[in-house]
Specification:
Elements (H helix, E strand, L loop, with lengths): L1 E6 L17 H6 L8 H9 L4 H14 L11 H23 L5 H9 L4 H19 L45 H12 L4 H25 L4 H23 L6 H17 L6 H19 L6 E5 L8
Antiparallel strand pairs: 1-2
Helix pairs in contact: 2-9, 3-4, 3-5, 4-7, 4-9, 4-11, 6-11, 8-9, 8-10, 9-11
């Protein structure tokens, strides 16, 4: 079933079991949805757009914190797990931005803010990875408005933007004294350790994909009068891909069922490539899978990463 295993050594370093838990961002996105949702529930989720600008800033902040050494914590299991937790948090917020449809220029700006430097990405990870990132964070075809031109009524000493810069890094001001200590490391470590079971997420996503497909067919049959059915279909689709991204993001344990669930995940997403699902949602799951591998490589995380003998379909 697998052709490669990557594991990292563990140290006997106790973790605080009473650390205040960190909310899983992708889980919170679909938490408002009942187990057996009404069409009105799906419409409400579609209309309840999260703060994508804040999600983009959070993703960039957590990514930046990976470059900061925790205060008073040595190189060991706790430090490695904290690093993995930061990577998982950054990737979860990135996935939220990637999955949400481009409804307006603010959504487009949030996606653009997470675009990597193409030359750096190509050099570090290759063309295919870059294409997946850009597909996941595609801003759509809405034009992002340029900065306003100063008018005679503006104050002369104001600082006007001379260019339109949407990089989220500008919002992440890590001062020289910025750091985090053992308490934060404990919370991040428990976040990394206490990931969800993958198989139930995939099963739930399957149900929502079926619902989305059925609602889409009904909407096409009814034509212009089916705007709410289209919204419900999109709500189900957003929920499904949020669950799939969550399943893709969490590193595999040394567990046969967990590895089998990863194979099921890849097979399911590959089958959706030829569907009407938006490419950016499919790419978001692929990107979350890659971010999971990065989390494992960061340090002493008790994960065993195995590459299933099944490849992702090409989408770009």
């Amino acid at each position: 079933m697998t052709d490669e295993t990557h594991s990292v050594p563990l140290e006997e370093e106790p973790l605080a079991q009473d650390a205040r838990p960190i909310t899983q961002p992708l889980g919170a996105l679909v938490a408002i949805l009942p187990q057996d949702p009404l069409i009105s529930d799906l419409i409400a989720l579609r209309r309840a757009k999260p703060d994508l600008a804040e999600a983009a800033r959070s993703a960039t902040f957590f990514e930046a914190m990976l470059r900061v050494r925790p205060h008073g914590v040595g190189f060991g299991r706790l430090s490695g797990l904290a690093q993995a937790g930061l990577q998982l948090l950054a990737a979860a917020d990135e996935a939220i931005v990637a999955i949400w449809p481009v409804d307006d220029s603010e959504v487009a700006k949030a996606k653009l803010s997470l675009h990597p430097d193409p030359k750096t990405q190509r050099h570090l990870r290759g063309d295919r990875h870059l294409r997946v990132v850009l597909a996941a964070l595609h801003p759509g075809y809405l034009r992002v408005a340029a900065p306003a031109t100063p008018t005679p009524d503006d104050r002369a000493l104001a600082s006007w933007p001379v260019r339109h810069d949407v990089r989220a890094e500008d919002n992440v001001m890590l001062r020289d004294g910025d750091t985090y200590g053992e308490a934060e490391c404990q919370r991040l470590a428990m976040f990394a350790l206490n990931g969800p079971s993958v198989a139930p997420l995939i099963a739930r996503a399957r149900e929502l994909l079926v619902a989305s497909d059925q609602l889409r067919v009904q909407a096409m049959r009814l034509g212009p009068d089916a705007s709410e059915l289209r919204l419900a279909s999109e709500g189900a689709l957003i929920s499904a891909y949020s669950l799939l991204a969550q399943a893709a993001l969490w590193p595999s344990r040394d567990d046969r069922d967990d590895i089998a669930a990863k194979v099921e995940l890849i097979t399911l997403v590959n089958d959706r490539v030829s569907s009407a699902d938006p490419t950016h949602m499919i790419a978001a799951v692929m990107l979350a899978y890659e971010r999971s591998r990065e989390a494992v490589r960061l340090g002493s995380a008790p994960f065993r990463w195995r590459h299933p003998n099944i490849a992702w379909s090409d989408i770009v």
